[in-house]
């Protein structure tokens, strides 16, 4: 099933397929850049949330196989708590933000590893099948979204232990700052951010992500295909 | 053929140009200002190009690029013809960008340059605003500059690809309060339409309704609340937008 039509048993009952990621929202990930944040080309630490779009071609279901691009050996595993928006969110105050959250999903935001966050190529984040979205869970079934344990496994071996704490912007602040200039719709997903030390995986490997209170997400990576040009449909 | 999508009398309609305004699919003829103009097609992934005219790249002090500078936008940014776009009170440099918008028809991946135009369904005009005060050097151009509510104006018409014989020889221009401030021609695109389709489809499947905003030429100037901004492309359309202040949005 295509995640943009994922339906589930609580409002808003379906996802829109719009997914926004946020870069460097894990304080240790930002801290790891050290003095570089003040040097060229950045010249200052980020002020507004650094957002990116995972376009609809990236959306994939659990069990899918994301294909590596030709010439790329490994993809970075971006284990994320995905926040499912429950109702139109515009200019939301932080203290009211929780009421705009319908539930949560585990999302693996796969990307081609890149060192520079200045103006990276969109192909690092927009590969087909590179946004694997798990089954939504209603908000009440999950504990404090800013204190959930996150575990990542590759071929069954633990490769990352992290949690959703230490965010530059915890969930409520993130939604407030985003919706100050852009409206989120019911069924949109906002990612809380990948933690520092994101592991990578290669073609043929199985990836699993666990976040407390959510169903485990599993999928695989597949080797690059030969490029078969697709003819336009008549 | 040119088609619009408009809201009128309780429903959304397809409409075509008419001497007295526009004609709805059900036969009614209505004035241009009697309808609410929506984006003229069902908008999928919005793919935007930065610095894709050599003169504009020079204007903003950028050198040669290795690959197209592409960024993506969300659906909430889109508004239609005759809409209003907010200028925040703290902005000192907010500018329009007149762009040829290329709408994908047939889906595809790894599309060859020679086949690329077969994947184009049609065209519309885009005015993709930027507020340079909010520019930061992280994942440029960052969302607060380029992905604002109401910051991407599309329309008025969806024009079938077959009706535009030479999409790479179209004059485009912007008028602010009737005075021309920007002009260019799509022949000056750094990466032309087939190149962009080949490049993008090399890593992402393009789907019907995905739209490529192909970039803007030089001549961007600051616009203020109350300004009428008209972005116009030869044979495609004349897209009108009005800048409003925070008070119009209750801020």
Which characteristics define this entry?
heterodimer, A: 234 residues, mainly beta, Fumarylacetoacetate hydrolase, domain 2, 8-stranded mixed β-sheet, 5-stranded mixed β-sheet, 2 helices, 30% strand, globular, disordered C terminus, B: 251 residues, SH3 type barrels, 2 domains, 12-stranded mixed β-sheet, 3 helices, 39% strand
Characterise the protein shown here.
By secondary structure, chain A is mainly β. Chain A has helices spanning 27-31, 171-179, and strands spanning 19-23, 50-54, 59-60, 65-67, 74-76, 79-85, 101-109, 131-133, 137-138, 149-154, 157-163, 189-191, 200-202, 206-211, 217-222. In chain A, 6% of the residues lie in helices and 30% in strands. In chain A, the strands form three sheets. In chain A, strands 1, 2, 3, 6, 7, 8, 9 and 12 form an eight-stranded mixed sheet that branches. In chain A, a hairpin with a 2-residue loop joins β10 (149-154) and β11. Chain A starts with 18 loop residues before the first strand and ends in a 12-residue tail after the last strand. Mean pLDDT of chain A is 94; it is low at 229-234. Chain B has two domains: 1-38, SH3 type barrels; 39-249, Fumarylacetoacetase-like, C-terminal domain (Fumarylacetoacetate hydrolase, domain 2, Alpha-Beta Complex). In chain B, the strands form three sheets. In chain B, strands 1, 2, 3, 4, 5, 6, 7, 8, 11, 12, 14 and 17 form a twelve-stranded mixed sheet that branches. A five-stranded mixed sheet of chain B has the order 9-19-18-15-16, with no helix packed on it. Chain B has a two-stranded antiparallel sheet with strand order 10-13. The longest helix of chain B has 9 residues, at 193-201. Chain B starts with a strand and ends in a 7-residue tail after the last strand. Chains A and B meet through β2 of A and β7 of B.
